[in-house]
Amino acid sequence: MHWLQDPNHTNVDNLYNQKNEYLKAKIDEPETNSKIKNIRDLHRGIIDFKKGYQPGTNIVKSDKDDMVTESHSILAR
Questions:
Q1: Integer Cα distance of 42 and 36 in angstroms
Q2: Which pLDDT tens digit goes with each residue over 36-70?
Q3: Is the dihedral of CA 42, 44, 46, 48 positive or negative?
Q4: Which of 20, 24, 45, 57 has the fewest CB atoms within 10 Å of its CB?
Q5: Does the residue 2 lie in any domain?
Q6: Helix axes 39-51, 9-35, angle to 10 degrees
Q7: Residues in CB range of 34: below 8 A, 6 or more apart
Q8: How confident is the model at residue 2 (pLDDT cuts 50, 70, 90)?
Q9: For residues 74 and 69, what is the distance between their CA atoms, to the nearest angstrom?
Q10: Contact 55/67 with Cβ under 8 angstroms?
Q11: Number of domains forming the structure of the chain
Q12: d(CA 32, CA 48)
């Protein structure tokens, strides 16, 4: 977060380098699973990579069968 708040050239370069290293590791992970014949993790990694980030939703039914999605209402329920 500090790098994003202070956007000088070196901080931006460091952020991009870390992002590239992370992406390379995520790409190499299915390759490693393929080499060691770990098929389940290979397919799981491919599916996760293709779908990307998908946030989950929290939905709870109230006493009156209404859908509640607010976090405070869910905690109260």
A1: 10
A2: 888 888 888 888 878 877 787 777 877 777 777 77
A3: negative
A4: 57
A5: no
A6: 140
A7: 42
A8: low
A9: 7
A10: no
A11: 1
A12: 16
Task: State residue 67's pLDDT score.
Answer: 79
Name which of 35, 77, 19 is nearest 69 in CA terms: 77
| Residue 3: exposure state from Cβ atoms within 10 A (0-12, 13-18, ≥19) | middle
Would you state the structure tokens that stand for residue 21, as one six-digit string?
A: 């290293």
**Which residues contact residue 59 at a Cβ distance below 8 angstroms, ignoring those fewer than 6 apart?**
67, 68, 69
Beta strand spans in 2-77 (E): 60-61, 67-68
Report whether 58 contacts 71 (CB < 8 A): yes
Domain assignment of residue 59, given as a range: 8-76
Residue with tokens 């009156």: 64
